[in-house]
Design goal:
elongated, 120 residues, mainly alpha, 86% helix
Length: 120
């Protein structure tokens, strides 16, 4: 299955390749730049979360990663609707994005539960 950090890092690599493809083959610059920022930010925030010293910081970084994941889903949908990527390309990368989103949600729930337990 892989860790959240591994999956988000590999996803960032896919996003970089997608960005290059969109710019080179489709001459699409606006959405490609947007998805580059949001798609790579997921992994960067997950990596930062693993190095934080407090649960509060951990939750904050994962919350940002979850928001970036949602934004990336949006840009992938726009690229699919605009026919910049094929249905097969869309399904593959979109499914990866959704899986990371689910992992982020589960990690956030666990972290928030632990915070509540320690506060009680």
């Amino acid at each position: 299955m892989g860790t959240l950090r591994d999956k988000s890092g590999k996803f960032a690599d896919r996003i970089v390749r997608l960005h290059t493809y969109l710019r080179t083959n489709k001459k699409e610059f606006t959405m490609s730049n947007q998805i580059l920022r949001s798609g790579t930010s997921i992994g960067a925030n997950v990596a930062e979360a693993t190095k934080t010293g407090s649960t509060k910081d951990f939750i904050s970084k994962l919350t940002i990663a979850a928001k970036e994941c949602s934004e990336t889903e949006y840009w992938l949908e726009r690229l699919n609707i605009g026919k910049y990527i094929t249905e097969k390309q869309f399904e593959s990368i979109y499914n990866d994005c959704c899986e990371i989103g689910k992992m982020l949600t589960a990690s956030l729930k666990t972290a928030k539960l632990r915070t509540q337990e320690t506060e009680s």
